[in-house]
Amino acid sequence: MIALIGFTGAGKSTLGKLLARNYGLPCYDNDEIVAKNMKMSISEIFTAYGEVRFRELEAASIARILHQSPLGVLVTGGGAPLLPETRQLLASKAFTVHVYTPLADILHRLEFDSTRPLLQGGIQERLTKLYDEREHLYDFAHTMADGTNMRLAEVQVMAKWMTH
Ligand code: S3P
Predict the structure, then answer these.
(1) 42 lines ligand 1 (CB under 6 A)
(2) Does residue 16's CB lie within 6 angstroms of at least one atom of ligand 1?
(3) How much distance in Å is there from the Cα of 112 to the middle of ligand 1?
(4) Which of 5, 83, 117, 128 has the highest local Cβ count within 10 Å?
């Protein structure tokens, strides 16, 4: 399994879908799966149950996918590696790729985003603070891909996956 990790807005979902389409791999977008299982949007889950419960649901879903599906692309939410157990699983059961995009690009991309619960109320400040807090969160990845250039990122992931 190729697992994509990285900051919110880094391009993980876009890259996951591209890899799935161009290489015929199944794509498991964890946020989409959690939302579908709960029959609620991610925002609704945060509002109804809070972040801690969301993290549990997120972690359980990642663990399930990694145990059941050996081949494909797993797209994880930006906060998924906050749990040490999830970091451990991603490091041992997947080829983990940090999709890296500089903060300036992310600020530009998410300027008008209204779907991400952690960014509500002062998007610039919240993104900047989170980016700072999570500076080293993705360091455990096996490799990196350039989230500002999806064509390049695709080649980077496949080339590194095939030779690792
Ligand atoms: C989160 C990122 C989101 C989603 C949730 C929490 C985070 O996914 O899982 O809103 O903590 O950074 P994206 O990385 O796709 O934005």
Answers:
(1) yes
(2) no
(3) 15
(4) 5
Distance CA 128, CA 143 (A): 24
Name the residue range of residue 47's domain.
2-158
The total of other beta-carbon atoms located within 10 Å of residue 134's CB is 16
pTM greater than 0.90 (yes/no): yes
Ligand 1 close to Cβ of residue 20 (< 6 A): no
Provide the pLDDT for residue 135: 94
- CA-to-CA distance for 32 and 112, rounded, in angstroms? 21
- pLDDT by residue (tens digit) across 102-128? 999 999 999 999 999 999 889 999 999
Q: Is 36 in a helix, a strand, or coil?
A: helix
Domain of residue 119, CATH code:
3.40.50.300
Residue closest via CA to ligand 1's atom 9 equals 77
